[in-house]
Input
Amino acid sequence: MKKISSYIVKYWYVYGFAIFCTVIAVSLDMLSPQVTKRIIDDVIVGGNLNLLTRLLILILSIGIGRCIFQYLKEYTYDVISSKITMKMRKDLFNHIQGLSLSFFDKNNTGELMSMVKDDIDKIWAALGFISMLIIEVIIHTSMVLFCMFRLNPGLTILPIIAMPMMGGLAVLMEKKLGKIYEQISEENAALNTVAQENLSGVRTVKAFAREKHEIQKFLSHNNRYYDLNMKQSSVFIKLYPYFQLVTKLLPLLAIIIGGYQVIEGDISLGTLGAFTEYSMNIVWPMEMLGWLSNSFASAVASIKRVNKIYKEQPVIKEIEQPVILEEVAGAITFDKVSFNLSDKNILTDISFDLAAGKTIGIMGATGTGKSSIINLLQRFYDVTEGEIKLDGVNIKDLTIKQLRSNISLVMQDVFLFSDTITENVKMGKKYLIQQEEIVAAVSNAQAKDFIERMEEQYETIIGERGVGLSGGQKQRISIARALAKKTPILVLDDSTSALDMETEHLIQKALAELNSTKIIIAHRISAVKNADEIIILEEGKIVERGDHDSLMQAKGYYYKTFIAQYGDYLEEIDRISERLEEREVAACQ
Output
C-alpha cells in the first residue's frame, strides 16, 4: 500500500496553504485577549475613552479576519481530503480487482465492501477534519502558551503541569480504544456480509421459510456490534470526565492566583483578564484531546485493515516481456495438464488439441472438473503440471488482457448487472458494439422476442442479478453478451440448462454457423453431439473420448447418458416401428 504520507506529499502545497490559514486564524485569536487587556487597563481603569472606538473596531476586524481564514482553512482541508480519499478508494478498488480468484475464494464480499466504503471513510475523516483539528490544537496551544508566558511566567506553570496529564490520558485512551475499534471494524464487516447475503438471496430465504432463522443470525451480529460500541463508549465515558475536570479547574485556579497577584499589585487587572481569556482558550484543545484520540484510534484501526488487503498479491502474474500475438486464430492445446487446489486433486493428465474453428464437447458428472478446464484456460488459476497453449504459445507467456479479451465465456452461474439489457449485452466491448450488432446477437441467442415484448425493450433495466427474468431469459441474454463480443474462442459452460429443447436447438444451429473455436460443457447430449470431439471426465481424468458415433458404439458413460436422456423416446420409436411392420405384414396377407 502507498503510505498515507505519499498521498499527502503530492498535495503538500495545498496542505501548506491550509496550515498558513490556520496560523493566521489562530494568531488573530491570540490578539483578542491583548485587546481585552487594553480595554480594561486603558479604558476602564485608565479612563481613556478615546481608545474604545478603535479597540472595538479592532475586535470586529479580528472577528471578520478570523471568519475568512477559518473558512479558507476548513474548505481547503475538505477539498484536499476528499481528493486524497477518492484516490485511495480508487487505488484500493484497483488493487482488489487485480487480485486472483483464489483471494476471493477466501474473502467474502461484505468484508471487502466494508473496507472500500467504511474504512476509507474513517481514513477520510482522519485526513480531513481530524488532522485539521490536531494541527490547529498544536498551533493554538503553542501560541497560547507563548502569550501566557509573556503575560505572566508564574501563572503559565498551571497549564504546563496540566497538559502532560491530559496527554497521558489521551495516549491511554488511544491504546484502549485501538483494540476495540479493530474488533468493531471486523464485526461491521461481518454484519455487512450477513445483510448482503440475505438480501441477495431473499427469494431462497423465503422459499425455505427461513426468515426467522436469518433474522436471528443478523441480530446475533447486530448485538455483538452493539456490545462493542458500548464497550467503546464505556472507555470514553470513564476517561473523558478527567479532561473536563482539568479544563474547568485551570481557569478557576488562574483567577484565584491571578486575583491575589492583582490585589498585591504584582500584575494589572487587564493582565489578569487577558490571562483568564487565554486560559479559557487553552481549555478547548485539552477537551479535544480525548475526542481526537477516539477518532484517531478508529482511523488507525481502519488503516491496519486496509493494509492487510494491500499485503495480498495476485497469484496469477504476467512475465516481464510477454508475447503479443498479432492475431488470435483460436487453436487450443492442453498438454498433460494437472491441477490441484487447496491440496485437493481436481484434474489429472488432461490432454487435447482443438484446432481453430473446431468444437470440443466436455461431459461428466458434477464435480469432475469440467469448469476447472475453463478456469485454467482463462488463467483464473494456473496449472499445477503441464501447459496450456493458445496458437502454439503457452498462455503464461501471453498478457492476461489479450488472453481473456479473445475468449467469450457464458458461465454456468449467470450474472447480469443492474443496468439496461443493452449495457449488459455490450459488456464485452462496451464502446465498440453497435446497436445492430446487439440486435443480431440477441436474435441468435433467441432472446429478441421476449426483449421486444417488454415496454422499454432494449433499454429495460434489469434488476439486481437479473431479478424479474426467468432462468432461461437470463441465460439467453448471457449468450447474447458472448456472441456480441465476437471473439475467436467461445466457451459455453452448461449455458443452455434452463432452456427448452426447441430453443436450445435454434441456439445450437446459430452457434454452428459461427467461425470460432468452441468449447461446450454440458450435461445434455443434444448440446455436444455435433462436436468434432467429445471428452468424458471422471474424477478429473479423461475416461472416454471421440465423436458422437464412436462413443455410442463404445457403450460407456456417453452411451448410458444418451439412453438415460432419450431412452423413453427411443422405445416409443421402436414401438411405432413395430406397429408399422405389423400393419405392413397384415396388408400383405
Observations:
- The chain has a mean pLDDT of 77.
- The first helix runs from residue 4 to 10.
